[in-house]
């Protein structure tokens, strides 16, 4: 397969958009950390907040690594284009492959971070367990218990 200038250039918009999404996630998380810090200072429920804080700390590290891998992927694309300009096909092929690998790694970390964010919401909802709506299973259990 011949790599032309257009091949790595196709990744530019994808990487840029994913970096924007990562930045938005980071900003939302930073805002949540600030809010949670205020609650932590005022609250008696420090066990729930402690779980949230551990989760947020880990998610912040993941987002930092996601962004770093996205940037490395972007740099590999740029250097790949330079190697194409120099007519260095082997170098361009290697750099393009590396760019794809770093991009994939970044996306995999993003998937893992999304899983953790839902876990954080479950911790928050666990604090309000009495307020949850009954599921169909709960409804059926109550029906059979009454009879």
List the helices and strands and how they pair.
Layout (H helix, E strand, L loop, with lengths): L5 H4 L1 H32 L3 H40 L3 H38 L9 H11 L1
Organism: Segetibacter aerophilus
Protein name: DUF2721 domain-containing protein
Pfam families: DUF2721
Which class best fits the helix and strand makeup?
Answer: mainly alpha
Mean pLDDT: 81
Number of strands: 0
Helix content: over 70%
- What is the H/E order? HHHHH
How many whole angstroms does the radius of gyration measure? Answer: 23 Å
| Alpha plus pi helix count | 5
Major sheet description: none
- Tally of individual domains: 1
What share of the residues does DSSP label as strand, in percent?
under 5%
User: In whole angstroms, how far apart are the ends?
Assistant: 70 Å
* Low-confidence spans: none
Shape: elongated
Structural write-up:
With 147 residues, the chain is mainly α. It has one domain. Helices cover 85% and strands 0% of the residues. The protein has five helices and no strands. It is elongated and about 75 Å long. The chain starts with 5 loop residues before the first helix and ends with a helix. The model has no long low-confidence stretch (mean pLDDT 81).
In short:
With about 150 residues, the chain is mostly helical.
Summarize this structure as a short list of keywords or feature phrases.
5 helices; single chain; 85% helix; 147 residues; mainly alpha
